[in-house]
Amino acid sequence: MSEEKKAIIERMAAKFIAIPSPDAKGYAVMCMTAYEAGKEAGKVEEREKWKDKVMVTA
Q: How many domains, the chain?
């Protein structure tokens, strides 16, 4: 992992730890989880589009 990515992750972790409210932390985790699920769904959708294009050209 690059030093730049490590620094970004460390800053994010420090900001998360600094959140005083447990409710706010729970909301932050929920948002991060939803974001990752959306990213993964988008990747799956793009793979399906790519497979369809490959099938049409083959």
A: 1
User: Confidence band (pLDDT; 50, 70, 90) for 16?
Assistant: very high
The predicted-structure confidence for 38-54, as pLDDT tens digits, reads as follows: 999 999 888 888 887 77
Q: How far is residue 10's CA from residue 16's CA, in Å, rounded to a whole number?
A: 10
Asked if the structure places residue 50 within a domain, the reply is yes
Tokens of 8: 């970004």
Q: How far is CA 20 from CA 26, 34, 42, 51, in A?
A: 11, 22, 33, 46
Q: Which of 6, 25, 23 is nearest to 15 (CA)?
A: 25
19 in Cβ contact with 28 (< 8 Å) = yes
